[in-house]
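#dry-run=false #mode=assembly
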Amino acid sequence: MLNLNGIGKRFGGLTALEGISFNVGKGSITGIIGPNGAGKTTLFNIATGIYPPSSGAVLLEGKDISKLPPEGRAHLGLVRTFQNIELFGKMTVLENVMVGLHTQSSSGMFACAFRMPWQMGEEKRIRARAHELLEFVGIPELAGVEAGTLPFGKGRLLEIARAMALEPKLLLMDEPAAGLNSSETAELADLIKKIRDLGITVALVEHDMDLVMDICDQLVVLNLGTMLAEGTPREIQDNQAVITAYLGEE
Ligand SMILES: Nc1ncnc2c1ncn2[C@@H]1O[C@H](COP(=O)(O)OP(=O)(O)OP(=O)(O)O)[C@@H](O)[C@H]1O
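#status=ok
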């Protein structure tokens, strides 16, 4: 689904990544883990188009997307969530999801903002779909609430609903469990599995080892900008280099 081919990244004299190659399998949940400063965020930013790689290529379904900006990647179905939730605080929860749906709709934001008569049917369809997505992530009762007043954990679920509005083929999540308590993390784990069960490929950068061991089909371990290991959670747990470099730190 997503191929990272010999990715390298230099920031001035510092080599943040070197020779990173792996494939995020279609329909899988892939976790990218590693100690602090391993290069996870840098790799995530290269995959989502925030930075160009210094070397190597990013391929989505075989197509080289290395030079595409984030919006272009989103059009091809590569959608991301943020570690620091970015919501429209003054809008309702429902409206936040509707904004995502408008960017996908044929009529676009402009016509919808002015409520052209021929857009009313579309508007109704979008509102219904937004309700469905809130139901899917488990917060249907919060539709009318101002997004800025949401507790952090609910905000994360809303962000996921908004990402789902973009109809991702591949959802890239930046530390989705950061800031969540254990019951919220368990809820998140169920939701990510539900997303995978819809046929959407998921890749996440995450520090919460219990979460990645629970939900991931495949793990990639980075250390000091290189790939230390790749395998199933079981294989990674038993990998001596990983234990030394990473798990041993805990
Ligand atoms: N924009 C930048 N300019 C210069 N150096 C950077 C930049 N972004 C990252 N680095 C460096 O690249 C290396 C990898 O950092 P990165 O943030 O990708 O690691 P990480 O695995 O995400 O760490 P953490 O788990 O702490 O978030 C670090 O040495 C970092 O200082």
